[in-house]
Amino acid sequence: MKRLLLLLFLVAFASCMGTRVVYDYDKAVNFNNYVKYSYYPELNSGLTQLDEKRLLRVLDSTLLTKGFILDEEPDFYVNITSNAYRSQPQNNVGVGVGGTGRNVGGGISIGLPIGNSGMQRSIQFDFVDVAKDQLFWQAIAEQSFRDNASPSVREQQLKAVVDKVFKKFPPYTK
Fold first, then answer.
1. Would you say 78 and 59 are in contact if contact means Cβ atoms under 8 Å apart?
2. What is the mean pLDDT of each run of 10 residues along the chain (174 residues)?
3. Is residue 34 within 8 Å of residue 68, measured between CB atoms?
4. Residue 46 forms part of a structural domain
5. pTM surpassing 0.85?
6. What is the domain count for the chain?
7. Is residue 71 included in any domain, yes or no?
8. Domain range for residue 30?
9. CA 76 – CA 71 distance, rounded (Å)
10. Is 110 left (phi over 0), alpha (psi -120 to 50) or beta?
11. What CA–CA distance (Å, rounded) separates 59 from 168?
C-alpha cells in the first residue's frame, strides 16, 4: 500500500513539472531542401527584449548544430510567438455533507482548490517556406516560469524549451 501511494505521488509530481511540446508538420515536405533560415521580418515574439535575445541566441546555436545556417536569403523563416498566463490550480478536493430525515433528503457539496496558481508560458515556433509562403513545421511548448527569475535561470529555462522542441527536428520522413 505504501508503494502504491508513493508511486501515485511521484506520477502526480512528475505530471506537474517540465515542458510539454506539441508538434505538427507537413508530411509532404522534404526537410533536406531547407538549409538557410532567417527570422520573420516582423518578428513580434511577445517576450521581453532580453528574453527574446536569449531565445534567439540559443535557437541559433541549436539550429547550427543541426546543419542550418542563418542567412539573409533564407529558404525558410522562423516565426516565434509567446503568451504568458496564470494557470488555475489543477487539484481539487470535494467536501460533501448530507442527511436524511424521515422522507426528506438533502446535501451540499463544494470543491476546494489545492495548491497555488502559477505562471505558464506558451512559445510557438513556426517554420514558413519563403518561396511558397506556407507553414511546413510548427511546435508549441508550454512551461511554467517565474517573472522574477534571475537572468541565468531564464536562459536555462529557454534553453530547456529549445532543447525539448528541437530534440526531434527535423522529423523523420519516409
1. yes
2. 51 57 92 94 88 94 96 96 75 61 64 65 94 95 84 90 91 66
3. yes
4. yes
5. no
6. 1
7. yes
8. 19-87+126-169
9. 10
10. beta
11. 14
Q: Kindly state the cell numbers that stand for 5.
A: 501511494
Quickly tell me which residue has 470543491 as its cell.
Answer: 111
Neighbour tally for 60: CB within 10 Å: 17
Angle at 149 between CA 144 and CA 56, to 5 degrees: 75
Contact criterion met (CB below 8 Å) for 91 and 148? no
> Which residue, 111, 57, 62, is CA-closest to 89?
111
The residues near 171 (Cβ < 8 Å, ≥ 6 apart) are 23, 25, 31, 137
What is the rounded end-to-end Cα distance, in angstroms, of the chain? Answer: 47
Residue 92 is assigned to a structural domain of this protein: no
In a domain, 118, yes or no: no
Q: Is residue 117 helix, strand or coil?
A: coil
Question: What DSSP designation does 48 have?
Answer: -
Q: CA 80, CA 58: separation in Å to the nearest integer? A: 13
pLDDT at residue 151, rounded to an integer: 87
Radius of gyration of the chain (CA): 23
Strands across the sheet containing 20-25? 20-25, 134-144, 119-129, 76-86, 36-39, 69-70
